[in-house]
Amino acid sequence: MHRSERQADVSAPSHADFVARIRAYLGEHLPPDMAARGRRDVHPSREDMLGITAILSRAGWSVPHWPEAHGGPGWSGMQRYLFEEELMLAGAPPNNIQGVSLVGPVIYTFGTQAQQARYLAPIREGREFWAQGFSEPGSGSDLASLRTRAVREGEGADAVYVVNGQKIWTSQAFMADMLFCLVRTDTQAKAQLGISFLLIPMRSPGVRVRPIQSIDEGESLCEVFLDDVRVPARNLVGEEGRGWDYAKFLLGNERVTTADVPRNKRYLAALKAMAKNAPSPSRHGVCLYDEPVFRQRMARLEIDLIALESAAVGTIELDDHSPLTPSALKIHGTELMQGLLELQVESLGAHGAAFFPHESRAEAGERWLPGPGDAPDAPGVLAEYLFRRAATIYGGSTEIQKNIIAKLLFGGRQAVASPVSEDQAQMQQSAERFAALWRETSWRDFEKGDADLARRRWLRLADTGFLGLGIDETMGGQGGSLDDLAVVMAALGRGGVAEPLGSCCVSAAHLLATAEWPSQRRREALGRLVSGEQVFAFAHLEVGDGGAPGARSVATRAAAMRDGFVLDGAKCAVMGGAMAEFFIVPARSITGAADAAAPVALFLVPAGASGVKAHPYRSVDGQVVADLSFERVELASDALIASGDAAALRIDEAILRATAMACAQAVGTMETLFGSTLDYLQTRRQFGAPLASFQALQHRVAEMYGELALSRAMLRRAVAALESREPAMPSRERIVSAGKSRIGRAAFFVRSQSVQLHGGIGMTQECEIGRLFKRLHAFEIEWGNGHHHAARFAEMGDD
């Protein structure tokens, strides 16, 4: 795994020092053989799981999320996140999660002082191993239906619970000292109210364990049989009948951790290493890593990982305790895990279906192990792939998580919103007021594609002051950051506003603000842009580039003459081009015959100049667009905006900014589609019941929510990357491309499902759903489609 792939800002001194301290300790105290097993073994041993806890305990780090009063280190959420990542990087085996992460917090939160004194120290110091007894045969994730009985006998200090029943899928029960168990203590109460939480010693008479071999042919899962097991009543946690509450508390913790971002990052790093050593099955002499189709598939998963990590880190930064979040993170984290492992197995080629014993190569001695000799991880790969098929089942299956999300959403729960400043809140409200007026405009005005009507709408937009956001006040703008602009763009997106903001505001403003002109001229041009007096459209696309923005594919030529330039060529799909007074045009600055390798320069071209022809039309969402042709257009020397390397950099930066702001607008539009769909399903009835009562539709809504949640996180990541000049441009460009690709995928899903769930009404022009569908379709095309950005992401490789 590349440390530069980390989302968290480890460049901050506090984080850098913290990470260095963790690495130094692990480097000194983590035994190399334990680290090797941690990277390889699918079914870690009791000795290793307790051993890593003991090693960390000596530094006070074995229970990173526990309160300081119970032995925790007092770390922030981000420090805990970085700590878990460093453990994964170092190859540390997993700890006894059932003790450290599950029952420990239950005991220190709800247990008695005696229980805390008896159990917490052995968990913290790696001296006692715990298993979890929740699932039962026939119940699966439906914990409320459990049948294991606990009948209380006796009084006072001699009171016991006599437990009878069976548990299944109990991880590592055969190596456990203790079992925390849900039992039914009241058969008359409502199902969820008759459950209690017991701590059962595994060596008690009547406890029998049968290991279950999983499909990787290893053993971690078990059946536990409880026959007249007598458990001291003092081992009851909390109150009798409140076990369901304690289980929900425990499972909330579990589902956050099983998003498993650090593990997925390790899988990705291993996948890249394996792909670089594996031959392509379709291109002789080329490694799998360089095979275009495989590279795209790998890039898609890496983009998903960036989005998942952005969501996980955002959860920490926003102090997000919404019950929606753990379920959404688990769904995406486990599905990503399975996708990464599938590609790892594919990289094994013909040996991808070979059976590998669970012993390491060293332990196997002379036994022949199939597979490429330079792939020592092959045995662990296939076993991991098979074993992790359960990732979407354990801890509450994907289907159960979707049920949870849907129930919360239809019950009125909402995601935790990103905080906005007081100024941003005012901007947001202003944008919402403008959007409300914009939505009152008759579709017939857009249908005509009339440039004069579009121009009047643009002037109303200019009156809000939004066109000056992000432009320095000394240059005639409103000031503010890209984050401010993203807040406004998202609000406009929620209102379905379809105007050429990227072309005629975001990119044009940046290019004029950085023009190689005297400051007074820059200020005057920007003043006209901000006021709406003149429209400047960024004409960057050409027919030959397939809709891919950027300076690399420019074919339009600007031949240098004694007093200026002569422009020849064509541009296409210029958003706002039908109403623009000026075009900002990239062209190759040539001195003689046409030269495809000539440097790109930027020119300001008057729409009314001789030789400029605009061919106007409109987009499906009602924006006015134009294709342009330039035939021997004579330009004065002061038409040059930028030249040389600076021009290419400014073009790319303008495109990055416009792309990120288009993403902000798209996320806002998705929010409206999602909210409208949620409302519609609760009010529309079929077969005598609300549509919201049908599980298939509930799951679709949960999937829409998950896509929207990842998109919000990816947007925050992209804007943060642009706001910072570190990391350097390639990293910023890579993150923005990841954002456009991932948000584009989400937008396709959300818009398609919104129409699908609305039924026929969603297909009508009168219904807002159909118009927003077209708005998001236009978003997919603008500033490069998802395929282009995924390819760019893959092409830029590892940072």
Identify the overall geometry.
elongated
Number of helices: 24
User: What percentage of residues falls in helices of 4 or more residues?
Assistant: 40-55%
CATH superfamily of one domain: Butyryl-CoA Dehydrogenase, subunit A, domain 3
CATH architecture name of one domain: Up-down Bundle
Q: Structural class of the secondary structure composition?
A: alpha+beta
CATH class of one domain: Mainly Alpha
Average predicted local confidence, pLDDT: 90
Main sheet summary = 8 strands, mixed
What does this structure look like?
It is a single chain. By secondary structure, this protein is an alpha+beta fold. Among the domains are: 3-95, no CATH class; 130-244, Butyryl-CoA Dehydrogenase, subunit A, domain 2 (Beta Barrel); 258-410, Butyryl-CoA Dehydrogenase, subunit A, domain 3; 660-796, Butyryl-CoA Dehydrogenase, subunit A, domain 3 (Up-down Bundle), CATH 1.20.140.10. Helices cover 48% and strands 15% of the residues. The strands form four sheets. Strands 8, 9, 10, 11, 12, 13, 14 and 15 form an eight-stranded mixed beta sheet that branches. It has a four-stranded antiparallel beta sheet with strand order 2-3-7-6, with no helix packed on it.
Structural descriptors:
single chain; 799 residues; alpha+beta; Butyryl-CoA Dehydrogenase, subunit A, domain 2; Butyryl-CoA Dehydrogenase, subunit A, domain 3; 8-stranded mixed sheet; 4-stranded antiparallel sheet; 24 helices; 48% helix; elongated; disordered N terminus
